[in-house]
Amino acid sequence: MMNDMKDQDEAAVASNPAFLVSSTGKIATWNSTCRSMLGYTEQEILHHPLNDLIIAADRAAVAAHLEQALPQPLEVDLSLRQADYGEIASRLTLLPQFGKSGRLIGYVALIIRDGHIERMGLADEVGNIPLKSMMNLIAGPFLISNADGRFVLWNESMAAATGKDAEQLGGMHLTDLFRAEEWLRLQPDLEQVMAHGVRLCVETQIRSRGGCAVPHLVSAMRLAYGGKHYLCAMGFDISERRREQRSLLVRDRALHAVSNGIVICRSDGRDSPIEYVNPAFERITGFSAAESLGRDPRFMAAPGLDDDERHRLRAAIDARLEINVVFRNLRKDGELFWNDLSITPVRDEQGEVSHFIGLVNDVTALKQRTAHLEHEVNHDPLTGLANRNLLWDRLEQALQTAQRNKSLVATILLDLNKFKCINDTMGHEVGDEVLKVVAKRLQASVRATDTVARLSGDEFVLVLADQPSLRFALRMIERVRGDLSKPIQYNDKEIPVCGAIGVSVYPHDGLNAYDLVRAADTAMYHSKEAGKGDVHFFSVDMKSSTDAKRALEAEMREALEGGQLFLLFQPRQSLSTARVTGVEALLRWRHPQQGVLLPAAFLGDAEENGMIVPFGEWVLQQVCLMLLRFKAAGRVDLPITINSSYREFCRGNYISHIAAKLDEFQLAPASLELDIREETLLRNPHLNKPVLEQIRQLGVSLAIDDFGAGLSNLRYLQELPMQRLKISRGSVGSICPVTNTGDLARTLIGIGRSLHLPVVAEGVESLSQQNFLRQNGCDEMQGNFFREPMTEAELRLMLEMA
Questions:
Q1: pLDDT at position 368, please?
Q2: What is the domain range of residue 16?
Q3: CB 193 within 8 A of CB 100
């Protein structure tokens, strides 16, 4: 009977739940007995505060005990809340648990319902509970071993953890719980427990079912009974805690590894003291963690900068909202940096914002690159002046201001005179220096509110904004002209500088930016024609003449693109053998309204407006195609001559372009000849010499064209690598058919012979001229007396019949 009652008491006590509570008052373990009594699963209750189980009216004693982390047991009668919102009147007992260092690590919580125990003292109640039942209430493995390490007693959790039955556990030794290397580590500490009664608390790994090792927190102490010593050991599975630790470690390493700065601040009213910064934050700001912790991040703010962004940030923090802002902060060394900052609020279990996480990204380099690109987009790289894009924007702004203020805007277009000559004779480095000096002078001569822009090459535009009167604008323009006209000193050389200046004024000469710049360009063009470096203001008469020239340029482009240009060919004859020695290609324009135009009708304008260059490229292409056809027909002994203008000859890539064409069509250089006018050679002697030498090295023949039409420099001509001298039409035309005299022609022929150059007479129109030239030693002639210009087909027929 007594045994039956004892079994009933053990069953009653074993049915009461027991679990562990951490030192912070949160539930750490939960077993099936707890779930059966209160209805909560592990997922629903673990890591929740113990007070969540207690009816609010009964919480005070338990809350005070846990808050003060008292190391004494607590026993209190109270009501517990069940998962279905029911209540159970119970007695809660908290037994303190201590770690290796003696520090309180938590409590064993024991719940006994009122109907299962008699009202007695705490010591009596606990003392009457059977040991086996008490051991089974412990959530983790528990065992008692003898001095030899053999198992004497264990609980159900030990059997479950190891997967052993009672018979197997009865034959086990402590060493069976651990791997060999782990036992070697633990054995000295366990010996100290048995020898001196010290307490042991250590993290280790226990062999579980299947042989795998499971991490446990093991506490052990010595138990004396009946003159013998026993080892009591209890373990708590810390697998989940290890997983959480590893997860936290990975997160911590990730925070340390990221290149962006991370700062975590506590939400604390108006201030947000820093609780954590990562190494990237230290690197970006220069402030160490020790220098940052506890301070509000605003200590890095740059005073007076980006206040609007800072107000937005503060408003978002006050409203507990996410935000991204970009502003400037100060590094520790005082250097400004652009901070791209993203703020995210973090909420606690109650849904309140407890912290803010800031992601700091140093975008200083990006800002600098963007500013640099914006400057490049809107500024000339050589002079730093505004470029065409910025000019239009500034001019539009100036016009809007003038419209509001009823003021004037002066637009000045300036083109440097003889700048190409500076480039050609002194080099591009000097030319660049001249442009930079001119840019500085122009900027210095106007106000900060005005704009100086470089359009292209040596062309500048000035916008004088908000001019109160024309008299005021005139004074500023005169200052610009005066500052510009001063010579530039470069390497002990004095470089004269002047420019053609054209001016238009809003609103008299135009109401929009385009019309004003066009009007200033027209005025500048007339200034350039005058060639005196004077200032020319736009007028309607200028527009008419300029429009005509622009219309002619448009017609020339149409002629080039529309197939209106064509070539005729005039052969050259030897006066001694009557053999055809070469052919000159002559350009013609089949104008839709004016008919066929000779070169004299349009090449002067083409030279002036630059169309001579594409015209020359077209002629070279057509001549190469014709030479290719001659080569296919077996005629490779007849060179074709083309004329080279000053603008073409002075181009830096002119010779390389000719060489490329000859190479493209696989033509011998000797099949091409260049006629260069004498005045072209004398315009820039220093430049022409090396260019002519390049032509000679290429193998293309050179001839001085129109020799004797102007002033000559025989010493200079003697130094040039020429193969032929062509005397002018005027000298041939001066030959008198009655008296058979022609002093100019005879002199020019003599000069050619003294220079050891074959002489060609151009424009021969009569038999008497031919006879005179032959008698005076002229080598070749060309003109209508021998053959008028003809088509390629006519030339082929003539050559076949010769």
A1: 75
A2: 2-137
A3: no
- Read off the CATH number of the domain in which 498 is found: 3.30.70.270
Site of tokens 């005021």: 472
Read off the pLDDT of residues 495-508 as tens digits, 9 standing for 90 and up. Answer: 888 888 889 999 98
Q: Do 385 and 286 share a domain, yes or no?
A: no
Answer yes or no: do 417 and 280 share one domain.
Answer: no
Helix intervals (H) in 15-120: 32-38, 42-45, 60-67
Is the separation of the CB atoms in 453 and 388 below 8 Å?
yes
Which residue type is seen at 469? S
Residue pLDDT, tens place only, 441-454: 888 888 888 999 98
**What's the pLDDT score for residue 118?**
43
Above pLDDT 70, what percent of the chain?
A: 89
| pLDDT, position 254 | 65
Question: Looking at residue 679, what is its pLDDT?
Answer: 78
Which tens digit of pLDDT belongs to each residue from 112-171? 876 444 444 444 555 555 666 667 777 789 899 998 999 988 888 888 888 888 788 888
Name the DSSP class of 455.
E
Q: Within its chain, how far is the Cα of 26 from the centroid?
A: 53
Q: Which amino acid is at 498?
A: C
pLDDT tens sequence across 723-760: 888 988 888 988 877 667 788 888 888 888 888 889 99
Query: Is 544 within the bounds of a domain?
Result: no
Statement to judge: residues 654 and 790 lie in one domain: yes
CB-based burial of residue 221 (10 Å sphere; 0-12 exposed, 13-18 middle, 19+ buried)?
middle
Residue ranges of E strands in 523-600 = 535-537, 565-574, 580-591, 595-597
Provide the token pair at 21.
Answer: 């509570």
pLDDT digits (tens, 9 = 90+) for 524-533: 887 877 666 6
Tokens read off for 734: 């001066």
Rounded to a whole number of angstroms, the CA Rg of the chain reads 53
pLDDT at position 476: 87
User: Do 782 and 722 fall within a single domain?
Assistant: yes
Is 149 found in the same domain as 126?
A: no
Helices (H), 532-592: 540-561
CA distances from 487 to 30, 437, 483, 494, 524 (A): 97, 10, 10, 6, 21
Burial class (CB in 10 A: 0-12, 13-18, 19+), 465: buried
pLDDT at position 133 is: 67
For the residues of 226-293, what is the DSSP string, one character each?
Answer: TTEEEEEEEEEE-HHHHHHHHHHHHHHHHHHH-SSEEEEEE-BTTB--EEEE-HHHHHHH---HHHHT
Read off the pTM: 0.43
Specify whether the CB–CB gap between 225 and 131 falls below 8 A. no
Give the position of tokens 């912290």.
355
| pLDDT tier, 12 (very low <50, low <70, confident <90, very high otherwise) | very low
Q: What is the largest CA-CA distance in the chain?
A: 173
Residues 164 and 89 in one domain: no
CATH of the domain at 45: 3.30.450.20
Q: Give which of 442, 433, 530 is closest to 489, Cα–Cα.
A: 433
Reading the block at residue 257, the tokens are 């590894």
Angle at 439 between CA 437 and CA 443, to 5 degrees: 120
89, 121, 137: which is the final residue of a domain?
137
Question: CB-based burial of residue 793 (10 Å sphere; 0-12 exposed, 13-18 middle, 19+ buried)?
Answer: exposed
**Six-digit token pair at 261?**
């700065």
Distances (CA, A) of 586 to 577, 589, 592, 765, 786: 25, 10, 19, 17, 16
* 549 within domain boundaries: no
Look at phi and psi of residue 455 and say left if phi exceeds 0, alpha if psi is from -120 to 50, else beta.
alpha
CB of 112 closer than 8 Å to CB of 91: yes
Q: Residue 271: which pLDDT band, with cuts at 50, 70 and 90?
A: confident
Q: Which residues of 253-291 are buried (b: 16+ CB within 10 A; e: fewer)?
A: eebeeeebbbbbbebeeeebebebbbbbbbebbbbeeee
